[in-house]
Amino acid sequence: MKGLLEKLLKSLGFSGRDWAALLLALLLAFSIWLIHNLSLKYNDYLTASVEAHCNLDGYAQVSSNVSQVVARCRTTGYNVISKDISRRRVRKVNFQPSVMKHHEGDTFYVTSADLLEYAHLIYGDDVTVEYFASDTLFFSFAKVDHKRVPVVPSYSISYRPQYMSVGNIQVTPDSVTIYGEPYRLETVDQVYTQPVKYSDIDADIQGIVGLEKIRGVRISASEIRYSLEVTRYVEFKTRVPVKAMNLPKDKEMIVIPSAVEVALKCSFPLIGNPADDVVLYVDYNDFQSSLSGKCPVHTGEMPKGVIACSLEPVYVECILGDR
Fold it and tell me: Residue 285 CB: number of other CB atoms within 10 A?
């Protein structure tokens, strides 16, 4: 047989080198055909394994089970093969709590109508899902302890000369829910933001910042919004008399010194003289509980435009007498 094949090739004028070239041409033609066919679009049913991630109040973030989803898809032949090969790989999909509906106990479900929004996460951006053959996916989430704690901003801010903040930095939301085992939660009373740093500012600031992670604890939000009002100010000092408040009708009080120095920081431009409306007083009830006769100086409601006030001294000596 071998001799017959050699005679046939010899009669056709084939040499060993020609035979190698023929095989190479056939291999090249097959490769081109294969690449062409794999690049064509096909319709097929693709299966994927989905692990649900969701921030559900009172439940773990990750489902304890994996659900199989089947969909009629249109994609390239290459994707059909690769998706089939990797069908055992679990897709971790972050679902919004609004689409995760409660079934019973610790079981939740997602309908096929809501799955369309997450098709690119399940199958990839290069696959078009025509419809889901799986009508509903069920997931189980273990129950966990939780509690509400405040968010504390961590920040370092410096201002240009004659500029300052109006009030404290504000965060939204100002509290979050944390989830975890009881022994972990009992040691957490607040959650801190990641550092917010500004320098030499002369205008309002706002932005988004992440929250510091806590080992073994899940937080209902990963980031918060912050804002801080900044204003230009003018500062001046004045002396204001100190009054005695809540005195019995048959008593009178001497305050030493009778007036204290007040440093006011006011928003620019300044309208009028706010010092005319500043009220300082000592409270008879503070005197009753004082062992030394010294009482703190209180400020009444600050006039409009005053954003900060400091006193010198902050304590005065009080002498009580009869009328």
Answer: 11
Picking from 187, 265, 205, 280, the residue whose alpha carbon sits closest to that of residue 233 is: 265
75-122 tens-digit pLDDT: 765 655 555 545 567 888 999 998 999 998 889 999 988 888 888 888
Q: What is the pLDDT of residues 46-65, one digit of tens each?
A: 888 889 999 887 888 889 89
Nearest to 240 by CA among 290, 298, 306, 292: 298
pTM of the model as a whole? 0.59
For residue 61, give the DSSP letter: S
In angstroms, the CA 122 to CA 86 distance is 12
Residues 6+ apart with CB under 8 A from 133: 45, 70, 71, 72
The vertex-162 CA angle with 160 and 167, nearest 5°, equals 90
Which CATH number, 2.170.120.40, 2.70.98.40, 3.40.50.1970, 1.20.1250.20, labels domain 147-228? 2.170.120.40
Give residue 64's Cα distance to chain centre.
Answer: 25
Report the distance separating Cα 62 and Cα 144, nearest Å. Answer: 12
CATH code, residues 233-322? 2.170.120.30
- Per domain, the residue ranges of the chain are 43-140, 147-228, 233-322
Query: Which CA distances in Å does 289 have to 242, 295, 297?
Result: 19, 9, 15
Q: By CB neighbour count within 10 A (0-12 exposed, 13-18 middle, 19+ buried), where does 28 fall?
A: exposed
Cα-only R_g, the chain = 38
Equal fold, 147-228 vs 233-322 = yes
End-to-end CA distance of the chain: 140
Contact by Cβ (8 Å): 48, 133: no
Closest CA to 49 of 90, 92, 84: 90
